[in-house]
C-alpha cells in the first residue's frame, strides 16, 4: 500500500512532468514565432520595392506583435523554470461548507495551471484562498474571496521542502507554522542578501502583508521581527492584487543607504516581481533643493555627534526634530506670505492700475509656486487692463506691467528666509551652517519652508505606493515633506529602539500624528537572533514586550583584554575560526567610522582580509566585513564581533542604542571584546571570560 509520502512524491513527479510539458509547448511556440519573424523580415527585404508605405507599416506591426507575444512566452518560461526547482512549499485540504467535496490546494511562489487541462496544480501564495494556509490551524476556517467570505473546514495542512525538483521533506502541521520548518529556516547560514519567507510567514505578519485597506500603514516592530521582509512581501502582494493598476515602477522605496538597498534587492525578483526603484533621503533632498544648497549628510551628522559629543549641536538637532518646529515653520510661512507682495499703483498709457487689484490677483494665485505666480499675475493684470480700457497694450507696455509685478515681490532667498525663521522664533543660535554647508538637521525644515513659500516641483507625482524603512531615523519635518510629496499609499516601518541618533528619532506615535489617517501595527516577536543573543541584547536595552524566538545557540561572550593588540589577536583568531565554520558572514562592528577604518587597517597589516563598509559603499556581500552599527542597521550576519565594548567607548545613551543595534545584527553568534573595564550597559558578571 502506498504511503502518504509515496503519494506526494508521485504527485510531485506528475507536477514536474506537467511543467516540463508546458515548457516544451512554449519552446515550440517560441520557435514558431522566431521562424515567422525571420520569414516576415526576409519577405520585407525581398519585396521592399513592391511594398508601399501602408504595407510596410502593416508588416512592421505584425512583427512587433509577434515579438511582444514571444516576450510574454519567454517570461512564462522563466517562471516555469523557477517553479520547476521548487513548485510548492505547502498543501492544505479545504472543505467548503457550501460544497460537499474536499479540495487539496498546493501553494508556491507562482500559480501553475496546466495549459492543456486548465487544472490548477499550484496556487500563488498571494491568491485569496492561500491565506488559509497562513491564517488557520486545522479545523473551522474561512477566507475572503472576491465573491465574499467562504467558510469551511481545513482538514489537512502540510509543509514541503522541495529543492531542485526533489522532495527533502514533508511534514504535517496542525498548529501554526512555527516549529520545525521555521526553526530550520532560521538556523540556516546567512545568504548573499535577504531571503523570501513565503513558506513560513506567520499569522500576524500575514495580516500586514495582505492588508489592502490602510492608506498609510506604520509598522513598529522589534529588532528581527521581519518588518523589512514583510514590507517587501506586502509589495509583492499588492502587485499581485492590483496587477491591472499597479506596476513595480509605480512604487518607491526610501532606504537608508545603498548597501541596504542592495541587500534587499533580490527579494522581489525572487518572488517573481521586478525590482522597485529606490532612493535615499539625501538624494531626494538634493533633487528638491537643487545644487545651490549644500548640506551635511545624516551619516556625517551621526559621526560628528559621536566624535565631538557637542551639546550645542545636540540642542540644535533636538529643537528641529519637534512638531513645535513644524508649526513654527508653518506660521512663519504665513507671515512671509503676508509680506511677500507689496503692491503699488501703476500707470500705463496714462491709465491707472490700482495697487489693490495687484494684491487681489496675487492672492488669488496662491496655489502656484513663486515663479509661476509672478508670470500669472503679470498676465492677469495685462488682461484686466486691456478689458477694462478696451485697448491693446504694446509689447513694451506689457513688459512694464510684468516688471512692476516682479518689483512688488518681496521674497527673500531660501537661505535668508530660513535664517529669518530662526530669528523670528528668537532662536538665532539654531543657525549654524559650516563651510557653506547646512547641518543635516536643517535640510528637511528647509525643504518644508520652501514647499510652503515658493513651492517645489514634485518629480514623484506618479508614485502610487511609498515604502519608508528605518522610520525611526526621520523627524517630523521629513514626514511633513513626504506627506506633501507622496499623497499616495504608504508603508512606513522601523523600530524606535534602533535609532542611531536619539536626538532626532521618531516613534511610531509621533509619525502617526504627522501622517494623518495612518494605521499603526506592532510586532513583538523577534526571529533573527538566537534566544541567548536576544536575552543579552535585552539587558542593554530592556523591552518587556519583546518575545525572543526559542532557538538556542552559544551564550554571547565578553572577553576582557588589557591592550588593543590583544583585542586584535582575538579578532584575527575569530576570523580564522569563522573561515573554518559553515557560516558565511562575520561582521566586526566598531562604534564609529574612524574606529572601523583604523581596525580595518590594523587587520590588513596583520594579514586578515576583510571588507570595510563606508558611507559610499554600494553593495552587500558576505565574508568578513568591518563597519559600524549605523551602516549595519537593517542587515544581519551569522556572526557579529564587537571589538571594544569598554566603558570608555560605550557610555552615552546614543552609545547604548548603537550597542543594541550591533548585538541584534547577529543571527547565530555574538562575541564582544573589552579593552579594559566593560561598559555599564553590559551585565558582565554573567559573561566575562577574562
Ligand atoms: N516568518 C518568518 N519566517 C522565516 N524567517 C523570518 C520570518 N520572519 C522574519 N524572519 C527572518 O528574521 C530575520 C529578520 O527579518 P527582517 O530583517 O525583515 O527584520 P526587521 O524587523 O526588519 O529587523 P531589524 O529592524 O532588526 O533590521 C530575517 O532573517 C528574516 O528572514
What does this protein structure show overall?
With 690 residues, the chain is α/β, with parallel strands linked by helices. The protein is built from 25 helices and 25 strands. Helices cover 46% and strands 18% of the residues. Strands 1, 2, 3, 4, 5, 6 and 7 form a seven-stranded mixed sheet that branches. Strand 15, helix 18 and strand 16 form a beta-alpha-beta unit. The longest helix is centred in the first third of the chain and has 43 residues, at 4-46. The two termini are 62 Å apart. The model has no long low-confidence stretch (mean pLDDT 91). The structure holds adenosine-5'-triphosphate. Adenosine-5'-triphosphate binds next to helix 4 and helix 6.
Which range best describes the helical content: under 10%, 10-25%, 25-40%, 40-55%, 55-70% or over 70%?
40-55%
Structural class given helices, strands, pairing?
Answer: alpha/beta
Cα-to-Cα separation, first versus last residue = 62 Å
Kindly estimate the percentage of residues that lie in beta strands according to DSSP.
15-25%
Total beta-strand segments: 25
Quaternary structure state of the chains depicted: single chain
Largest sheet: 7 strands, mixed
Which ligands, by name, code or SMILES, are bound? adenosine-5'-triphosphate
Kindly report the average pLDDT value: 91
Low-confidence stretches: none
Q: Please work out how many helical segments DSSP would assign.
A: 25
User: C-alpha Rg, in Å?
Assistant: 31 Å
Shape assignment: globular
Amino acid at each position: 500500500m502506498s504511503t502518504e509520502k509515496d503519494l506526494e512524491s508521485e504527485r510531485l513527479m506528475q507536477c514536474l512532468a506537467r511543467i516540463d510539458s508546458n515548457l516544451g509547448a512554449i519552446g515550440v511556440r517560441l520557435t514558431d514565432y522566431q521562424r515567422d519573424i525571420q520569414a516576415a523580415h526576409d519577405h520585407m527585404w525581398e519585396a521592399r520595392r513592391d511594398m508601399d508605405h501602408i504595407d510596410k507599416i502593416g508588416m512592421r506591426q505584425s512583427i512587433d506583435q509577434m515579438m511582444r507575444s514571444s516576450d510574454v512566452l519567454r517570461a512564462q518560461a522563466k517562471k516555469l523554470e523557477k517553479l520547476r526547482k521548487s513548485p510548492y512549499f505547502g498543501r492544505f485540504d479545504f472543505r467548503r461548507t457550501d460544497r460537499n467535496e474536499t479540495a487539496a490546494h498546493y501553494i508556491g511562489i507562482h500559480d501553475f495551471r496546466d495549459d492543456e487541462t486548465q487544472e490548477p496544480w499550484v496556487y500563488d501564495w498571494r491568491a485569496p484562498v492561500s491565506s488559509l494556509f497562513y491564517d488557520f490551524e486545522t479545523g473551522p476556517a474561512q477566507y475572503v474571496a472576491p465573491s465574499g467570505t467562504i467558510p469551511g473546514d481545513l482538514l489537512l495542512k502540510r509543509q514541503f521542502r522541495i529543492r531542485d525538483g526533489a522532495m527533502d521533506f514533508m511534514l504535517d502541521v496542525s498548529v501554526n507554522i512555527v516549529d520545525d520548518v521555521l526553526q530550520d529556516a532560521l538556523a540556516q547560514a546567512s545568504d548573499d542578501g535577504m531571503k523570501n519567507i513565503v513558506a513560513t510567514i506567520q499569522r500576524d505578519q500575514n495580516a500586514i502583508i495582505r492588508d489592502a485597506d490602510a492608506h498609510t500603514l506604520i509598522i513598529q516592530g522589534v529588532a528581527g521581527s521581519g518588518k523589512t521582509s514583510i514590507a517587501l512581501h506586502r509589495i509583492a502582494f499588492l502587485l499581485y492584487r492590483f496587477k491591472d493598476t499597479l506596476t513595480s515602477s509605480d512604487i518607491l522605496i526610501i532606504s537608508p543607504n545603498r548597501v541596504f538597498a542592495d541587500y534587499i534587492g533580490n527579494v522581489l525578483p525572487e518572488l517573481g516581481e521586478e525590482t522597485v526603484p529606490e532612493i535615499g533621503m539625501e538624494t531626494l533632498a538634493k533633487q528638491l533643493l537643487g545644487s545651490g544648497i549644500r548640506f551635511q549628510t545624516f551619516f556625517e551628522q551621526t559621526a560628528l555627534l559621536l566624535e565631538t559629543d557637542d551639546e550645542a549641536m545636540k540642542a540644535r538637532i533636538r529643537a528641529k526634530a519637534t512638531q513645535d518646529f513644524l508649526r513654527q515653520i508653518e506660521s512663519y510661512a504665513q507671515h512671509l506670505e503676508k509680506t511677500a507682495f507689496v503692491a503699488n499703483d501703476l500707470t500705463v498709457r496714462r491709465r491707472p492700475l490700482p495697487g489693490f487689484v495687484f494684491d487681489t490677483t496675487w492672492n488669488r494665485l496662491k496655489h502656484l509656486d513663486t515663479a509661476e505666480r509672478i508670470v500669472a499675475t503679470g498676465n492677469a493684470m495685462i488682461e484686466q487692463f486691456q478689458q477694462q480700457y478696451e485697448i491693446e497694450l504694446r509689447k513694451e507696455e506689457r513688459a512694464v506691467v510684468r516688471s512692476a509685478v516682479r518689483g512688488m515681490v518681496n521674497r527673500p532667498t531660501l537661505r535668508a528666509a530660513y535664517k529669518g525663521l530662526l530669528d523670528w522664533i528668537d532662536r538665532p543660535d539654531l543657525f549654524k551652517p559650516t563651510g557653506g554647508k547646512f547641518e543635516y538637521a536643517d535640510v528637511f525644515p528647509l525643504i518644508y519652508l520652501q514647499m510652503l513659500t515658493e513651492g517645489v516641483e514634485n518629480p514623484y507625482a506618479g508614485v502610487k505606493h511609498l515604502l519608508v524603512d528605518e522610520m525611526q531615523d526621520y523627524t517630523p519635518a521629513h514626514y511633513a515633506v513626504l506627506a506633501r510629496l507622496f499623497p499616495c499609499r504608504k508603508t512606513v516601518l522601523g523600530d524606535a529602539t534602533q535609532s542611531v541618533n536619539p536626538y532626532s528619532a521618531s516613534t511610531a506615535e509621533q509619525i502617526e500624528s504627522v501622517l494623518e489617517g495612518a494605521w499603526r501595527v506592532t510586532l513583538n516577536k523577534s526571529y533573527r537572533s538566537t534566544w541567548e543573543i536576544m536575552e543579552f541584547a535585552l539587558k542593554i536595552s530592556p523591552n518587556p514586550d519583546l518575545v525572543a524566538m526559542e532557538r538556542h545557540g552559544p551564550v554571547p561572550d565578553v572577553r576582557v583584554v588589557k591592550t588593543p593588540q590583544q583585542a586584535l589577536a582575538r579578532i584575527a583568531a575569530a576570523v580564522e575560526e569563522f573561515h573554518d565554520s559553515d557560516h558565511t558572514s562575520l561582521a566586526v562592528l566598531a562604534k564609529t567610522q574612524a574606529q572601523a577604518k583604523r581596525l580595518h587597517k590594523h587587520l590588513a597589516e596583520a594579514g586578515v582580509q576583510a571588507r570595510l563598509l563606508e558611507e559610499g559603499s554600494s553593495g552587500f556581500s558576505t565574508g568578513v566585513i568591518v563597519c559600524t552599527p549605523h551602516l549595519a542597521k537593517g542587515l544581519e550576519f551569522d556572526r557579529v564581533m564587537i571589538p571594544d565594548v569598554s566603558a570608555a567607548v560605550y557610555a552615552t545613551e546614543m552609545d547604548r542604542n548603537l550597542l543594541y543595534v550591533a548585538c541584534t545584527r547577529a543571527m547565530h553568534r555574538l562575541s564582544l571584546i573589552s579593552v579594559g573595564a566593560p561598559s555599564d550597559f553590559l551585565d558582565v558578571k554573567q559573561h566575562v571570560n577574562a
